[in-house]
Design goal:
By secondary structure, this protein is of the alpha+beta class. It has 6 helices and 14 strands. The longest helix has 40 residues.
Length: 247
């Protein structure tokens, strides 16, 4: 049920993102669709397409809205480790409990508030979109170096999340992926992944609309994990007769 609800919310977000930032029908200063209201466009040689006048084009590796999160974690006693295999789309699995000294070398990425994560490996669509609602997961978790993370601000979080979740992003990522045994992207590759940077006013409008949808998705993730924890605690007691369910 939760997955279906979140899939529906993700579809709503993607439709909004496509309308605003691919078709350029975001609200203009008069609240009307920009392109349909004869909003100005100019050609951008990096994207090889027209974009709204005043907008910029920057790379995932170097842009004004996010920064790449470097490997390294703070010392801890016990946390839950999430390799990429524990994430399916935006669904987060149970993970495994680790401690700082004996953790494997790949358990070396620190999740943070307003960070956006994606699997580096080709044809691997796995996203962690960590807003305030997911602070309980952020504080108790360590991620694999199989993820690449982008640190956003509160205002840019929803836009960067939408960029990374788009089919366009995954297509470019797969095109740039390389490697002899396992094809994946690295930070140098991210310097060749370009996207539009909207003006501040449009970014703030998108944040105002999209943050409600992303908050719902995150709250559903938390609820699902709590229900799973309850099920895993209760099921063994049902199986051995410690508790019964009245008909």
């Amino acid at each position: 049920m939760t997955a279906a609800l979140n899939d529906n919310l993700a579809t709503q977000i993607n439709t909004l993102y496509q309308y605003w930032f691919m078709q350029f029908e975001f609200p203009d200063k008069n609240g009307k669709p920009y392109l349909s209201s004869q909003g100005g466009l100019e050609y951008n040689s990096r994207l090889k397409k027209n974009i709204p006048v005043g907008w910029q084009v920057q790379s995932i590796a170097n842009n004004d809205l996010s920064t790449i999160i470097k490997p390294g974690v703070e010392q801890f006693t016990s946390k839950t480790y999430y390799p990429t295999s524990e994430v399916n789309g935006t669904t987060i699995g149970n993970g495994t409990t680790i401690d700082f000294k004996t953790r494997e070398s790949r358990a070396n990425m620190q999740p943070t508030e307003y960070s956006v994560w994606f699997a580096k490996m080709k044809s691997s669509v796995k996203h962690l979109l960590l807003n305030t609602e997911l602070n309980s997961i952020i504080d108790s978790s360590i991620l694999s170096t199989g993820f690449s993370g982008l640190q956003c601000s509160e205002q840019s979080f929803e836009y960067i999340s939408s960029v990374v979740s788009s089919d366009y992003f995954e297509t470019i990522k797969d095109t740039l992926a390389h490697g002899a045994t396992q094809e994946a992207v690295n930070n140098d590759d991210l310097a060749n992944m370009f996207f539009v940077i909207p003006d501040k006013e449009t970014l703030e409008k998108y944040h105002a609309v999209a943050h409600k949808l992303y908050s719902k998705i995150s709250n559903n993730i938390i609820e699902s994990k709590e229900l799973t924890k309850l099920r895993d605690w209760l099921l063994p007691m049902l199986m051995n007769g410690q508790v019964t369910v009245d008909s």
